[in-house]
Amino acid sequence: MTEKKVMLTEDGYNKLVEKLDYLKSVRRIEVAERLKAAIALGDLSENSEYDDAKNEQAFLEGEIQELETKIRNSDIIKAGDGKSVTMGSRVKVKDLEFDEEETFLIVGSTEADPDEGKISNESPLGMALLGQKINRVIKVNAPAGIIQYKIIDIKK
């Protein structure tokens, strides 16, 4: 089975590596200490502290494994030349209905965070923006209806 490539910006890749390092070097030790303390309490059959610590350990190991897989299968995306929208582009658009400007960074789904202006290349807006040029008007089919945006600027 071939694992799916994970599209990441360089910053997103570095954040995943940093989180993995933290989980392995700090959280593993904390959970191991908690497990050791729970074992010291005695009878494991009725020890909820022990059960909680084991569950936390299993969750942590799953998270570590997931991060390692994402990192191993990552493709670092490089922004294009700024002439058209690509993964890694920072795009300034104008909502034509509300006359409001917004800026979005086009990223892979792993990094998407709309609150930070990072939208996935797989989202309706991300897909509509990809390949477009400055001054183009795009239509996005959103839950609220069709939204029209004009592309004002594209940066690497």
TrEMBL record:
Q: Which UniProt keywords apply?
A: DNA-binding, Transcription, Transcription regulation
InterPro entries found in the cross-reference section: GreA/GreB_C_sf, TF_GreA/GreB_CS, Tscrpt_elong_fac_GreA, Tscrpt_elong_fac_GreA/B, Tscrpt_elong_fac_GreA/B_C, Tscrpt_elong_fac_GreA/B_fam, Tscrpt_elong_fac_GreA/B_N, Tscrpt_elong_fac_GreA/B_N_sf
Its domain of life reads Bacteria
Domain Transcription elongation factor GreA/GreB C-terminal, chain residue ranges per copy: 83-155
Q: Please identify the protein, giving its name as recorded.
A: Transcription elongation factor GreA
UniProt-listed NCBIfam families: greA (TIGR01462), PRK00226.1-4 (NF001263)
Q: Does the keyword Transmembrane helix belong to this entry?
A: no
Assigned protein family: Belongs to the GreA/GreB family.
Q: Where is each Transcription elongation factor GreA/GreB N-terminal domain found?
A: 6-76
User: Would I find DNA-binding among this entry's keywords?
Assistant: yes
Q: What does this protein do?
A: Necessary for efficient RNA polymerase transcription elongation past template-encoded arresting sites. The arresting sites in DNA have the property of trapping a certain fraction of elongating RNA polymerases that pass through, resulting in locked ternary complexes. Cleavage of the nascent transcript by cleavage factors such as GreA or GreB allows the resumption of elongation from the new 3'terminus. GreA releases sequences of 2 to 3 nucleotides.
List the source organism: Selenomonas noxia F0398
